[in-house]
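Sharing a chain and its predicted structure for anyone who wants a worked example. Both blocks are below, sequence first, tokens second.
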Amino acid sequence: MQRAGGSAQGLVHGRPGSQDEPCRGRLARRRRDVARDNASSMQAFAFDRQTLPLPAGHRFPAGKYRLLRERLAGRPGLRLTQAPPASDGELALAHTPAYVSAVVEGHLDAVQQREIGFPWSPEMVERSRHSVGATIAAARAALGEGIGVNLGGGTHHATADKGAGYCVFNDTAVAARLMQAEWHRARRRAHPSLLRIAVIDLDVHQGNGTASIFRDDDSVFTLSIHAARNFPFRKEPSDLDVDLPDGCRDDAYLDALDGALAELWRRHHAAPPGLIFYLAGADPHEGDRLGRLKLSAAGLVERDRRVLAAARERGIPVALSMAGGYGRDIDVTVQLQVATVEAAWASWRQWNNAQP
């Protein structure tokens, strides 16, 4: 059939971009444009469309995830994608099947729900699955492009058999185990050893759940820098813990970070990690309700810059998650996390030699 305004011959031989360009030509151009845009943008994964119904007055700032996504939406150089959910099998890589089943089927008792801090609901289950899925997706993006970002995550208080402290499943632990499994399947003949992983946890609270899950696993190194007197009050030893006093400010914090990173590289001189999970909590900020440290916004940006630069200089991909942030002003917390994503994007550009 002849198309209005053109001949049958024009459908085959029309100029690219003209009204007579073949459909397949326009589609090919569109695919090239999408590929070009994707090659010049960092991937970030959101899951805030899965709601978390909470009682009135609850302390958890569930709204910050939507605000963060909205503030980042449309930014050049950033590809925002809704995260897929983690499956039961993926969750069972780091959690006991009995615990996964109890969460999914709604069998958590009142004590377990109170320890998590959320009442059970189907929406809580779906949100928790997608939170883990976002870190899995960010880790895959990191292994392919240098850096991938979860606009939430960092649920580091969940252990293998229970949740705690607003953490249902441990997204970092699940994603780490899955990346090791995928790496081994793809490379087992050429590289029979597991992918070595480092967790750099800079949330203001100690990463006790992650430390517990990887307690006897030499392939995953856990580093936590946190307020000594903050939750959890019974801490699980990481491979390297740095306990900071109340009121610690920028200079002392950054000195402690430099020392911890130097120790991390010293211990991995012979076999450096192939992937880093970076938990970039906003809660060390001086305005945080649940933190006990006093970092400025500029101090947090410098913290992020140092971690990302150290990884990039060594060619180690980074899967970044936002972790905690409980500011008295939620807009301040969101802006701190925007700054973390911007620091990641600047590092991603250097990693990929992309143009602004």
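Comments welcome. The chain is about 45% helix and 10% strand.
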